[in-house]
Design goal:
Elements lengths: L3 H42 L2 H34 L2 H35 L6 H30 L4 E4 L4 E4 L2 H5 L2 H32 L3 H36 L1 H7 L12 E8 L4 E8 L2 H7 L9 H27 L4 H10 L3 H5 L13 H10 L4 H30 L7 H9 L3 H15 L4 E3 L3 E2 L9 H32 L23
Antiparallel strand pairs: 1-2, 3-4, 5-6
Helix pairs in contact: 1-2, 1-4, 1-6, 1-16, 1-17, 2-3, 2-17, 3-4, 4-6, 6-7, 6-15, 6-16, 7-14, 8-14, 10-11, 10-13, 14-16
């Protein structure tokens, strides 16, 4: 049996590196489309301030992009170093979208980023705009293929287990690509990235307006960010509803934990806004509920029930018992591959193989599992409710707060006299960290809520890790934390430095007086 400490350290290391990496990804996804918008206006109008906006915000984008690539590469290496059995077990499926991401998106992205920075004086305006557009498309294609891989971990479709190779093998590539869970995750994640990019530009522009410097530059940036952010925030909320539906279809355990739904409620279930969760007693001491809403989100119907945690555990207990039969049949097939009886038994029970493997966390031979061990495995199938419940609600609360901010900011650009209301600008400035907090919480809810599985219902996490020493993991974890923290400090230093310098750092000579009010044509 694998040491529980080894599993926990491997999970912690991947979580730390993923959380660091995801500090850079959303800003890359969002800012690149803002650059496309700004440069498009420049090409259409010839107004040089829009070119300067593209170059200035592009400089901050480039700093973030470079560090995002660095953290992403080391993140993927861990599949081979820390999760070797996982890579062996599902590499045929999981490796395909990651390979396509490298060939289709990463190479294009890497080429276009160079042309973006060094092509201003070598390409025509239209050609350079096409470079920026291709950079945006490549960035989103990169996210698409990575989220297709992640979506398959959440809902493993288009693949079957082959007992002869002891691996999952792809049987339908297009089912993997068009997996509803993967597609919902993609549109929701990139929309969250767009919100991040918009908030970044809105907050820094607000700082310029509060300081009354580079005013016309900041007003244009503020206007673009407000409009783009409003559309993106609305998209996140609408597409988040779709994500809730796909979770209700493929991961009812996660949905029940997010809602602290211990008992199955009559359809349509209500949405629990707040609750006092008592995990020891497996109940809510009190809760505030909005009738019907959760049923509509999770099932798209008024009659379909959402199962509660107790009902899910009862179902999982039955699957674990059937999984014991599947594990025994698989062992027989490993000893004698031509055992027809064992093959027939395995085919009937192979859907529950992963549930039988959950017992190997506690016993090497699943036949030695006592009722107490089986009950522990049953309890393992549901993640802790409290962090899921509150993590989800903080994320949603931040989403609606950002929607309100972008709505007011956009309205202020229509009523231009209100644009420089200090309270609005200060609110925008203080909201700068909000999209990152929401994005990290979204990642936590999605990944922690999948536990105890690396591949939902197929491969338990405790069987997925490499055989490493605990000391090695402590060393690599410390190294990653130090290295990634150093990168984060570098990013923060460079971002603050160039944001403080403002558009004057472009060296065009147009922004030397801290304001360009009289240096550019009237706003477009």
């Amino acid at each position: 049996m694998i040491s529980e400490q080894l599993v926990d350290l491997s999970r912690l290391q991947f979580a730390v590196t993923a959380l660091y990496h995801f500090l850079f990804v959303p800003l890359t996804l969002g800012m690149v489309w803002l650059l496309v918008i700004m440069e498009s206006v420049y090409v259409m109008t010839g107004n040089v301030v829009w070119k300067d906006m593209t170059r200035f915000w592009g400089k901050l984008f480039g700093i973030n992009f470079a560090l995002g690539v660095t953290t992403g590469i080391t993140l993927e290496f861990q599949f081979g170093t820390n999760w070797a059995y996982y890579s062996h077990y599902v590499g045929d499926i999981f490796g395909a979208p990651l390979a396509i991401e490298g060939m289709m998106a990463f190479f294009l992205e890497s080429t276009m980023i160079g042309l973006f920075f060094f092509g201003w004086d070598r390409l025509s305006k239209t050609q350079h705009l096409m470079v920026t557009l291709l950079l945006a498309i490549a960035s989103n294609l990169s996210a698409l293929w990575i989220l297709i891989a992640n979506g398959w971990m959440q809902s493993p479709v288009g693949a079957e287990f082959n007992y002869q190779t002891m691996r999952m093998e792809m049987v339908d590539f297009w089912s993997v690509v068009f997996n509803p869970d993967a597609q919902a995750k993609f549109v929701h994640t990139v929309s969250a990235g767009y919100v991040t990019g918009a908030m970044f530009v809105l907050s820094i522009s607000s700082w310029y307006l509060l300081k009354k410097r580079d005013v016309e530059f900041a007003k244009r940036s503020f206007r673009v960010a407000a409009a783009f952010g409003l559309a993106s925030a609305l998209s996140v909320i609408v597409l988040g509803d779709e994500s809730g539906y796909t979770v209700g279809e493929s991961q009812q355990t996660k949905l029940a934990a997010m809602e602290a739904m211990w008992q199955t409620k009559p359809a349509p279930a209500g949405l629990t806004v707040m609750a006092s969760i008592n995990e020891a007693a497996q109940k809510n001491n009190w809760e505030v509920e909005i009738p019907w809403v959760m049923g509509l989100i999770g099932t798209r119907s008024l009659t379909k029930e959402i199962p509660g945690i107790f009902q899910i555990k009862a179902k999982n207990r039955e699957r674990i018992l059937r999984g014991i039969v599947a594990v025994n049949a698989l062992d027989a097939l490993r000893r004698q591959r031509n055992d027809v009886v064992a093959q027939q038994v395995f085919e009937r029970h192979k859907a529950d193989l992963g549930f039988g493997l959950l017992l190997k966390k506690y016993v090497s031979d699943v036949n030695q599992a006592t009722p107490e061990i089986i009950e522990r495995a049953v309890n393992d199938t549901v993640p802790r409710v409290t962090p899921m419940f509150w993590g989800f609600r903080i994320m949603v609360g931040l989403g609606f707060a950002m929607l309100a901010l972008f709505g007011l900011a956009f309205w202020s650009t229509i009523k231009s006299a209100n644009m420089q209301k200090p309270w609005l600008l200060k609110w925008a400035l203080w909201m700068l960290p909000a999209p990152w907090v929401a994005a990290e919480l979204g990642w936590f809810v999605a990944e922690y809520g999948r536990q105890p599985w690396t591949i939902y219902g197929v491969l338990p996490t405790h069987l997925s890790v490499s055989t490493l020493s605990v000391n090695n993991l402590y060393g690599s974890l410390a190294g990653f934390i130090v290295f990634y923290t150093a990168l984060l400090v570098v990013e923060m230093f460079l971002m603050v430095k160039f944001a403080r310098l403002g558009p004057g750092s472009l060296g065009t000579g147009r922004y030397q007086d801290e304001s360009i009010t009289h240096a550019v044509p009237a706003p477009v």
